[in-house]
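Chain A, query sequence.
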Amino acid sequence: PISDSVLVMAANRLSSPEPLSNIEQWVENSALVPAMDVADVAYNDDRSGRTLDAIGPEVKSVWTQILFKAAAAFNLELDSVFYDLTSIYFEGDYKQSLLISHGYSRDGKPDKKQINLALNCSQKDFIPLWYKLFKGKTNDQTTVLDNMAQLDKLTKELPSKPGKALTVIGDRLMLNDEIAVSYGHLGIKFIGTIDDCKAQQELIRFIPDEILKSSPLNYKGRAKDSYYGVVLPHVFSHHETTNGKEGKHFILESAAHVFFSESKDRRDKKSFDKFLKSSGRFNYFRNFTGAHIE
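Chain A, predicted structure.
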């Protein structure tokens, strides 16, 4: 039965993960399988492949059932979630694949084709909540709205609802005005970096250095340097567009946290100094500004 094959593969993944081609040998040498109530048949890679093909259409349903049972059994805290993408590269052409393609490589292998895997994990205990495969050439930011809708649906279906509003944490590629406004419509909180140089500059210029450096934070990094931070109001603004025509205008009032790191400041100055020297512009810049770069 398929259920027996699923049980054998699950036992392998949990105890001693092997490629599908090695499952049969693992079964023969395992002391675990004889103790399991499964049929005495050849659990080779062909059987495993047929099993995966059979359960493929139901995998999302199976996943949510496992998540719901685990959340109830272990009282998991799922109200704060990390969202990010990673890439998995492949050897070969895969010309017929609908997903495998060239794209931005996080593996440092731009010559290899890949797929992108989007994953949500809880902030506490790093429990995976939801995942999805995307084409290898998919831009990170284009996945956020779809992921947001899936998370909203998933958390509303949880048997035990989170005690707090859902918060999604992402990097600078996971936030823009449209995304922020959409989070607001769903009542989802978010933490991310503003991916807008002009908006960043305006926020930073608004704060005098003496005010920023008079607001120390309790956090200490590995270098034991000091960190400073202030909170400012920030407004996200988005115009809906339909058939090239501008529609409704939405705004979302939020809070922007501006941070200053002493170690980051030193690294930036050092990198800038190195760049100027390597480009032959160091003396020109120093004389032009009347200041020495430390």
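Confidence is low (pLDDT under 50) at residues 284-294. The first strand starts at residue 80 and ends at 90.
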